[in-house]
Amino acid sequence: MADITSSVAVPAPTRRRIRWSLIGDHAILIAGSLFMLLPLLVLLQTASTPDLETMKNGPGLYFGDQLDDNFRKAMFEASGFSGANTGLSMLKNSLILGLGFAFGKIVIGMMAAYAIVYFRLRFATLAFWLIFTTLLLPLEVRILPSYEITQKLGLLNTYTGLIVPLIASATATFFFRQFFRSVPEELVEAARIDGAGPVKFFIDILVPLSQTMIAAMFIIMFVYGWNQYLWPTMITTEEDMYTLVRGIKQIVQVLEGNEIPQYGRANVLAIISVIPPVAVVIFFQSWFVKGLTESDK
Amino acid sequence: MAQVTLDSVRKIYPNGVEAVSPASFNIPDGEFVVLVGPSGCGKSTLLRMIAGLEDITDGALSIGDRVVNTLDPADRDIAMVFQNYALYPHMTVRKNIAYGLKNRKTPKDIIAQKVDEAAKMLNLTDYLDRKPAQLSGGQRQRVAMGRAIVRDPALFLFDEPLSNLDAKLRNQMRIEIKALQRRLGVTSVYVTHDQVEAMTMADRIIVLNSGKIEQIGTPAEIYHNPASTFVASFMGAPPMNLVAGELDSGHLSFAGLSLPVHADHRGPVTMGVRPEDLVIDPDGQLHMEVELVEELGAHRLLHGMVDGQRLTVHLTKEIKAHTGPLRLSCHPDRLRLFHPETGKRMDAQMATQPRTQTESVAS
Amino acid sequence: MKRAGFDSRWLPILLLVPQLTIIAVFFYWPAVYALKSSFFLQDPFGFGQTFVGLENYTSLFDSSEYLKVANFTVLFTVLVTFFSLALALLLAVKADNVLRGAKTYRTLLMWVYAVAPPVAGFMGLLLFNQRWGPLMELFGHFGWEFEMGADYSDTAFAMIMISIWKQVPVNFIFFLSGLQAIPKAVREAALIDNRSASGRFWDVTFPLLAPTGFFLLIINITYALFDTFGVIDTVVRGEPSNNPMTLVYKVYVDGFRGNDLGGSSAQSVILMVLVLALTVFQFRMVERRIHYT
After folding, report:
1. Which residues partner with B289 through β-bridges?
2. Are residues B88 and C186, on separate chains, in Cβ contact within 8 Å?
3. I need a surface site. Which of A238, C48, C76, C133 has the fewest CB within 10 A?
4. How high is the pLDDT of residue C215?
5. Is B261 helix (H, G, I), strand (E, B) or coil?
6. Domain B238-357, CATH
7. CA C17/CA C25 separation, integer angstroms
8. For chain C, give me the number of helices (H) and strands (E)?
């Protein structure tokens, strides 16, 4: 006994338990995935099928061959009156909104967060509260006066008017403040001993340290900006300023308007409005999830 | 209470890595067995297989007279104390301790009685209504113990339960756990990487290295007769001195030392000797150049070189020492020989002669 | 503030100026403006305004239409919040259980996060299309003549379904990360203490997810109140008429379409108070919430 037995050990037949519960788990997950995917599949199917067929029979089980044709129409033919809102122009505006918003929000947020966390400031508390009160009221509840003011400033139908008012909330500032506070204190002390001033410290140390956080924020903010609807609806009245998401209402009208509704073309535009943000979220999944779930702490 | 038997229990991970090579041993009822080894040696995996938290790839595990390979952890009649205590943070101490009983449909009054008993035993009575976050490390450790003992399990499992405590508390808890186990008489398997814990707590020690059992034995056996250079250097602080010697025609030679042995092996050999088995001897054959005297109060350690090889000597506090040359001798009984390549012990018979004679032979 | 901050006087001010300017112009000014307008009656032709005190507010509470919208908003919020949380929790628990395909499931269950609400509404229009919508046909098989846009409750049903679909991913992501934050050893301890999987879930996992769930509750209420605007606007095709709508949508309709700046501002202020109350409630709860450490 108690030996490293060299005796012929007859391995007991380890019965593999069939895990019914695991099969159930997979079934639920597959059902859930299908629930999420179904609308997209219908969208894709109708976008690739001739409109007449869709109108007669509704979405079928097979994808058609009209995707190219619909894509060309959607991208290069205007759907409005002035002829300016082709898919391409809307895509451009969406990109400007998404990127401009993300960039502006991060730069301004980081600067403010740096000031609040790393400087002795007499009115620091006041600045903090002024900034963080903005977390309390979403743009939607002050939409009308915001519109009036933007109009007064002559910013209707401009990219500035589209982007800057959306930046007037402190989510990114708050996020970076939390992150900066978690950076070890010793780092500033070491940097000061090494002769780095506040600007050097920010550029040489803090920004590189924040890379992942910046990436995560960028993804979240890009998606948020791209997906804006209410504000662009109010602020852009000229068709050449429409974004894809803002144009969706008009797409709906196209759907309804014609004798044979142009489902295919409209759906291609809907798909194009979904692809960039979805792609970003899928490809940078881990950053995105990290940024999202850490922003609540 | 029960005995535990492992018959060629083996673990292979899906990626093909064999975490535990077929292991067979038996733990009699009431014995306290410590699994010890460096991190990654498979000791925790072995424990978790006994607990049912990991699947057993091959072999048979029985607790009492049941083969439990396919039983859920909750059905194995075990209790486990985890490294990070794994207390339920949202439950009070009382609920934490009672939770396992509650799920076994134990009547309320018996639960209350058992919780109170355990709390008294562990000095937790005043803390029963607190949440784990409001307790100190040592108290949390006790709650984890309490959760285990109220269940009256057939088997206790401990997964490095003391590694998160500071040194002083660790010493204290070590004694408490051991005393508690004595009192309750429950078969226990205890995993640690700390050889002091292993030596002081175990009835029997199982030393593991890269998934294989190196040696099974009582603390004294393991300490004095290590089965391999691995065990020799892992157990004991400071570890056994291991130096390269030479065996030929009935003589073991190392530096100036030459001892008669009965061994068939010839050629290079690894020679092992515990630091306390080297004694200062003005006529000794070993010439040591002492480089450092480590003062430890109750004793001293001398570190230095003998013939280009590093050696440590343990001296009682009465014996003064200083750096510089020194002569040592060693009783041949205390020498252990290991195969230079495999590291396994060689059962060479030392020629047992009185010490004086050894020296005269040597001189 | 960090213990070892910098002492520069002008730099922090320079750093704060852009943020403070933007929020002053586009946050505080509009907020104050809304508050002020809510006490005035706007001349419909744009010639000045008259101070009317609380009249804009009282007329809202006397308006059966406003109360109807408020009622619907409450119902809508409760249903969307409950079902998107419940569904996401179920999926997160399952996704946390499986090893095989975990990453694929995660992707398939979260991509909808990036779909804009009006586009979600657009997809809903397809599924519930009156001529050939697959869901409409499905309901038809069960004898339910689904009429989106014409029937009040059918339209409400579609709005709720779409809003839930859109919100499941966020909740899923948070629940999954909450589940993964539960120490492995605690789950293992539960495995030894309790043989029933559902017992372990309700006794250990669920309470440990409570902080995440509470945070999500607030997020979801906010979502249902505000972010569903795009869904609703698309589903009603910009023509609310007899269709259900939420309070935020009414602010927009009355103010932007109806040119009732005073009434719309009063509605904005009511929503502001609602959000403030919600936030204060959240902070109070966060303070009291047990920090499991």
Report:
1. B305, B325
2. yes
3. C48
4. 85
5. strand
6. 2.40.50.140
7. 12
8. 14, 2
